[in-house]
Design brief:
Elements (H helix, E strand, L loop, with lengths): L6 H35 L7 H6 L6 H32 L6 H15 L7 H16 L8
C-alpha cells in the first residue's frame, strides 16, 4: 500500500487478506478430510512380517491425512481468532490511526500467552498475520 493510504483502506486490505487465508484454509480442510476418508476406506495392504515392523505408523496414509487435517484446523482457528481480535480492536478503538498498532500488540500478547510449540500450525498462522499487519501498517505508525 502507498504510504498515503487511509486507515480504512489499510483495514480493508487486512480484512481481505484474513478472509482469503480463511477461505484457503477451509479448502485445505476439505481436501484433507477427503484424503482421510479415502485413506480410511482403502483396504489395508498385507505385508510380510519383516516389512511390517520396519514401517513407521506415522507414514501411513491415514496418519498423514489426520495430521494434515489437524494442522489445517489449527491454522483456521488462528485465522478465526485473529479476525475476532481485529474486529474487537476496531470496535473499541477511539482513534482510527492506532487500530493497527493496538491490533499488533494484542496479537503479540496472544502469541506470548499461548502455550504452543514454535513449529505449531497455529503459531505459524499467527506469525503470518502479524507479518501482514506490519506490511499493511502505516510507515512510522509505531512512533505515534
Amino acid at each position: 500500500l502507498p504510504a498515503s493510504a487511509n486507515i480504512l483502506v489499510r483495514l480493508h486490505a487486512l480484512r481481505a487478506w484474513l478472509s482469503r487465508r480463511h477461505d484457503e484454509t477451509e479448502q485445505e480442510i476439505g481436501i484433507a478430510a477427503l484424503a482421510l476418508q479415502q485413506a480410511m476406506s482403502e483396504p489395508a495392504v498385507e505385508m510380510r512380517p519383516r516389512r511390517r515392523f520396519a514401517q513407521n505408523d506415522d507414514n501411513s496414509p491415514v496418519q498423514h491425512a489426520q495430521s494434515a487435517l489437524l494442522e489445517a484446523q489449527q491454522r483456521l482457528s488462528a485465522y478465526d481468532e485473529a479476525d475476532t481480535l481485529l474486529e474487537d480492536c476496531v470496535t473499541h478503538m477511539t482513534t482510527g490511526e492506532r487500530v493497527l498498532v493496538e491490533y499488533y500488540l494484542a496479537l503479540e500478547e496472544l502469541v506470548q500467552a499461548a502455550d504452543a510449540p514454535d513449529d505449531s500450525p497455529w503459531l505459524t498462522a499467527m506469525s503470518a498475520v502479524m507479518h501482514r499487519v506490519e506490511q499493511v501498517g502505516t510507515p512510522g505508525e509505531e512512533d505515534v
